[in-house]
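#lab-general

N.A. 3:47 PM
ok so I finally got the sequence cleaned up, no stray characters, all 158 residues accounted for. can someone with queue access submit it? mine expired

B.Y. 3:52 PM
send it over

N.A. 3:53 PM
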Amino acid sequence: MKQLRLGVLAGIFAVSGVLSWAGARLWASIDTLPGVPVAAPVVLALIAAVLLATALALRTRLRAQRERRPDAKGVDPMLAARAVVFGQASALVSALAAGVYGGLGLYLLLDGLDLPLRRTQALYSGFSVLAAACVIAAAFFLERVLKLPEDEEGAAAA
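B.Y. 4:20 PM
back already:
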């Protein structure tokens, strides 16, 4: 399984941000902009919390297994693989969501925040981008926790 690359996530963020900003400009010239849902930053923060909790739990179990504690529970390889896939998928989708909300927030900032509704929407956009960055950080941490030792040796030799 390939590792997450920060460049790919940054590219997704940049492309979706530019498209979102352009789409917001076009949409605002035709009609009013759709609102940023209040649930967007909340859901992204919950996903980040789940990823972080999973990473911490698996790190504790792996540490106990490495130290050969008698009460240590092993980590099922399929569970670890599913956790990594969930983390990678969450990071990719979060980069896309961060770009969309970042582009919309940028449009709102550049267009002017004279209306209270626009200020609120820009604030929700900013929180969504921040929560998406937390998802990406938690996904990288989860991937680091579940990295096999032979992966590190293979990467150094290549």
